Amino acid sequence: MCDVLQIARSTFYYDAQERATEDDITEAIVDIFLKNRKAYGTRKIKVKLHERGFIVSRRRIGRIMKEQGLVSTYTVAQYKPHKTACNEATTANVLKREFEQTEAKRFVFSDLTYVKVQNRWHYICVLVDLFNREIIGHSAGPNKDAALITHAFATVKSDLRQIQWFHTDRGSEFKNQKMDELLETFEIGRSLSMKGCPYDNAVAEATYKIMKTEFVNQMNFQSLRHLELELYDYVNWFNKHRIHGTLDYMTPVQYRQEALKKVV
User: Fold this and answer.
1) What is the model's pTM?
2) Could you give the angle at the alpha carbon of 131 between the alpha carbons of 125 and 133, nearest 5°?
3) For residue 112, which phi and psi values (nearest 5 degrees)?
4) Rounded Cα distance, 15 and 17, in Å
5) Strands 107-117 and 120-129, sheet pairing
6) Are 172 and 86 a contacting pair, CB within 8 Å?
């Protein structure tokens, strides 16, 4: 419409904003940025500004962020410290890259990532519901093994029998007697990515990239207990406060609640 009427977009934003002062907008942008772990870029900040009644273009947000020295934590390349043996099981890939799910807990995926604690490698495991990207279970520990994963399952607050399928890559830590017994007990089906195909577990890879950027790389962990406390805090923020572009800029909890309303 601005093109048709031959007026600058900035004119529209200025009038629609009801002449909010530059200081007001700048203060709001800085507040949103700092309250969200310095992770939001112009797109998400624009959404949060709109919730506060400010209509601001991404270009203007970007200019203000530059003036204020606000640089999003994205993105730093990550490298794994070492490789582990591959799970050679013949288990099929049931998920088949169908990452858009319409049913809660139909597919829960998981993976592990590493973090330094006092110059020693530790590991984080999260369980994520593919339906709304909500982290439903999490754990941290010094060893990359089945105990770390079963601990994450132990933190799930809902009935584990609601989980239909558990999808992971072929890391050997996901294939052992302890894991088999847990999945069998709660009648959870198994789905594995194809060997040498990271795209089959792309959502898990993306989730851990987010965690490394927004959480791990911003911290200096002094002990395992420190890591566990900070991880708990981050998961709470991730589920209840962090808006996701893939969820129409809702938080995972909001998305789940909206879905429940539609069912009722």
Assistant:
1) 0.70
2) 40
3) -120, 150
4) 5
5) antiparallel
6) yes
Q: Are 167 and 91 in contact (CB under 8 A)?
A: no
Give CA–CA dist 52/60, Å, rounded: 16
- 190 φ, ψ to 5°? -120, 135
DSSP state of 142: S
Please name the residue ranges forming H helices in 103-223. Answer: 146-154, 177-185, 202-214
- pLDDT tens track for 107-145: 999 888 889 998 899 999 999 999 999 999 999 999 988
- Give all strands (DSSP E) within 49-207, no chain letters: 107-117, 120-129, 134-141, 165-168, 189-192
For residues 153 and 173, give the distance between their C-alpha atoms in angstroms, rounded to a whole number.
14
CB-CB contact of 37 with 215 (8 Å): yes
CA-to-CA dists, residue 79 to 83, 113, 155, 159, 197, angstroms:
11, 10, 28, 35, 17
